[in-house]
Give the backbone structure.
Amino acid sequence: MAWSELPSDLLVTIAGTLTEITDQIRFRCVCSRWRSAFRSLPLPPQLPWLILPSKPPSHFYSFSEDRIYPVRLSDDAGISCLVGSASGWLLALKGQRCNFTFSIINPFTGASVDVPSPDALSSLTYAPANSLVWDRSDSVVVIACMTEVPFYCHLGSQHSWKQIKYAQHVDARSIIFHKSKFYILNARTCEIIVLKEEGEMLEVIGVINCPDSEPNRFVTQHLIVSSEESSLFLVKSGRWLHGPEFFKVYQTDLKEELKEWREVTNIGDRAIFLDQLGCSLIEVDERSKWRRNCVYMAMSTIRLKKADRSTMWSKKADRLYIMYYVSVVDLGSREEGRVEGALTGFFVDNPCTQLTPTWIVPSLNRDIIRE
């Protein structure tokens, strides 16, 4: 029997086990019949890749394969920052401060959607690249910054954009759109503001106080929503002065009128993937190398490479280069470690503007709106 003649139920079984995007691409490339069978299947949860910022081409690290791939993004010249997501799409920024343009890119399919340039007076125009936060749901894309909260919302199948304003200043460090509500983490007041669209404005419909609400500039905070549990997670990470990194995870039930936080030490067969720009809660397949009930924190460090000046006529200058690493913390045992392998020896000696690595969950979906 030829490969193209395998029974449909067997193809479904095979495709349902593919949790790596590279395996899915290989599956689709066998023949048109396999490709058609793949399109009609509900796919298993995908495992995240790590984007390692560099001048074109960008580099993507697959932990499951322990391999780093150079990836050419569509029209990647001039990209100064990439922010990943759990939806398979990147928020790409071009230009420099005061002159940003935005686009949303799927690096695995080449699909892209341009975002209209913000108003010249908008805080989005002046925001540093590392202060931008964004989220995507089935039908909405929202972009905000830490100095104000203007949003771009991508609504409906016509790919129409509109800007929605919120009257008050918010130091937005994390943003989630869930069931027609915006959850914005205001780092200045240590509150989560719940908003809903009312015409051209956003109206406050609730405020959730954060646990350990003392503001701390050394602590990074991110929000995650678990639709299955109707739960809101708050992930705190940071480093004490001259001390080790720390992670805390809190959970509250969105269905309860009075939100009470509890610290979580067991998230089941899932892992949290965290960077300075965002956070995702992903189901971990037992066949993968990822460990359940752990936090994976992607970070970077700057090193100095001294030039060889062994001869008096040498004019070589010292150079900076960036190394990336991933810290791992088990929420139950608090055991710490690092991801070893290809990532350990990888460095970028011509870094781009962005120095922060960011996670992305791969997707072969070419349409940013999932109907």
